[in-house]
Design goal:
Blueprint: H1 7-11, H2 21-24, E1 28-30, E2 36-46, E3 51-59, E4 68-72, E5 77-79, E6 86-88, E7 98-99
Parallel strand pairs: 1-6
Antiparallel strand pairs: 1-2, 2-3, 3-4, 4-7, 5-6
Amino acid sequence: MSSAPDEAEVAGAAQTTLVAVGALIEAPVRNRADKTIGRIAELMLTAGKGQVAYVVVARGGVLGIGETLHAVSWCDFTVDPLDGHLTLDIDELDPASAFDKDPWPVAIGS
Protein backbone atom coordinates (compact mmCIF):
# COMPACT_ATOMS: atom_id res chain seq x y z
CA MET A 1 0.00 0.00 0.00
CA SER A 2 1.52 3.34 -1.02
CA SER A 3 1.47 6.40 1.18
CA ALA A 4 -0.32 9.58 0.19
CA PRO A 5 1.81 12.12 -1.72
CA ASP A 6 3.09 15.05 0.29
CA GLU A 7 1.69 18.56 -0.23
CA ALA A 8 4.51 19.61 -2.57
CA GLU A 9 3.79 16.70 -4.90
CA VAL A 10 0.07 17.46 -4.94
CA ALA A 11 0.41 21.20 -5.41
CA GLY A 12 3.53 21.11 -7.56
CA ALA A 13 4.78 24.16 -5.67
CA ALA A 14 7.54 25.10 -3.25
CA GLN A 15 5.16 26.50 -0.63
CA THR A 16 3.42 23.76 1.31
CA THR A 17 1.85 25.73 4.15
CA LEU A 18 -1.92 25.35 4.28
CA VAL A 19 -3.76 28.65 4.59
CA ALA A 20 -7.44 29.08 5.48
CA VAL A 21 -9.32 31.12 2.89
CA GLY A 22 -11.16 32.97 5.65
CA ALA A 23 -7.84 34.19 7.03
CA LEU A 24 -6.97 35.75 3.68
CA ILE A 25 -10.10 37.86 3.19
CA GLU A 26 -9.25 41.48 4.07
CA ALA A 27 -5.57 40.55 4.50
CA PRO A 28 -3.15 43.28 3.42
CA VAL A 29 -1.28 42.86 0.14
CA ARG A 30 2.26 44.21 0.07
CA ASN A 31 4.74 44.62 -2.73
CA ARG A 32 8.37 43.47 -2.65
CA ALA A 33 9.36 46.76 -0.98
CA ASP A 34 6.96 45.88 1.89
CA LYS A 35 4.57 48.74 0.97
CA THR A 36 0.86 47.97 1.36
CA ILE A 37 -0.74 48.23 -2.08
CA GLY A 38 -4.20 46.78 -1.38
CA ARG A 39 -6.19 44.13 0.41
CA ILE A 40 -7.69 40.77 -0.51
CA ALA A 41 -11.38 41.29 -1.30
CA GLU A 42 -12.17 37.75 -2.54
CA LEU A 43 -10.69 34.50 -3.74
CA MET A 44 -12.49 33.15 -6.78
CA LEU A 45 -12.53 29.35 -6.97
CA THR A 46 -13.24 27.15 -9.97
CA ALA A 47 -16.14 24.94 -8.90
CA GLY A 48 -15.50 21.24 -9.40
CA LYS A 49 -11.75 21.66 -9.87
CA GLY A 50 -10.76 22.92 -6.43
CA GLN A 51 -8.48 25.57 -7.88
CA VAL A 52 -8.09 29.29 -7.24
CA ALA A 53 -9.13 30.98 -10.50
CA TYR A 54 -7.83 34.37 -9.33
CA VAL A 55 -7.54 36.65 -6.34
CA VAL A 56 -9.44 39.93 -6.19
CA VAL A 57 -7.25 42.70 -4.79
CA ALA A 58 -9.03 45.91 -3.78
CA ARG A 59 -7.11 49.15 -3.79
CA GLY A 60 -7.96 52.65 -2.63
CA GLY A 61 -11.36 54.01 -1.74
CA VAL A 62 -13.18 54.18 1.57
CA LEU A 63 -15.65 51.49 2.64
CA GLY A 64 -15.73 50.15 -0.91
CA ILE A 65 -16.50 53.52 -2.51
CA GLY A 66 -13.95 54.60 -5.09
CA GLU A 67 -11.83 51.47 -4.82
CA THR A 68 -10.48 49.61 -7.82
CA LEU A 69 -10.62 45.84 -8.11
CA HIS A 70 -7.84 43.83 -9.71
CA ALA A 71 -7.86 40.20 -10.82
CA VAL A 72 -4.47 38.70 -9.94
CA SER A 73 -3.17 35.16 -10.35
CA TRP A 74 -2.73 33.25 -7.08
CA CYS A 75 0.70 32.19 -8.38
CA ASP A 76 1.88 35.81 -8.13
CA PHE A 77 1.57 35.81 -4.33
CA THR A 78 3.76 34.65 -1.48
CA VAL A 79 1.89 34.03 1.78
CA ASP A 80 3.46 34.81 5.14
CA PRO A 81 1.65 32.44 7.52
CA LEU A 82 3.11 34.13 10.60
CA ASP A 83 1.57 37.57 10.21
CA GLY A 84 -1.12 36.88 7.61
CA HIS A 85 -0.02 39.26 4.88
CA LEU A 86 0.52 38.42 1.26
CA THR A 87 3.36 39.68 -0.87
CA LEU A 88 2.65 40.31 -4.51
CA ASP A 89 5.71 39.65 -6.62
CA ILE A 90 5.36 42.97 -8.47
CA ASP A 91 5.91 46.59 -7.50
CA GLU A 92 2.45 47.92 -8.40
CA LEU A 93 -0.87 46.55 -9.60
CA ASP A 94 -1.25 46.54 -13.38
CA PRO A 95 -4.02 48.93 -14.49
CA ALA A 96 -4.93 46.33 -17.15
CA SER A 97 -5.92 43.90 -14.37
CA ALA A 98 -8.62 46.30 -13.07
CA PHE A 99 -12.28 45.45 -13.59
CA ASP A 100 -15.71 46.82 -12.70
CA LYS A 101 -17.72 45.52 -9.78
CA ASP A 102 -20.19 44.05 -12.31
CA PRO A 103 -19.47 41.72 -14.06
CA TRP A 104 -16.45 39.98 -12.59
CA PRO A 105 -14.01 38.09 -14.84
CA VAL A 106 -14.66 34.40 -15.43
CA ALA A 107 -10.92 33.72 -15.66
CA ILE A 108 -7.68 35.62 -16.12
CA GLY A 109 -4.64 35.11 -18.27
CA SER A 110 -6.36 33.65 -21.31
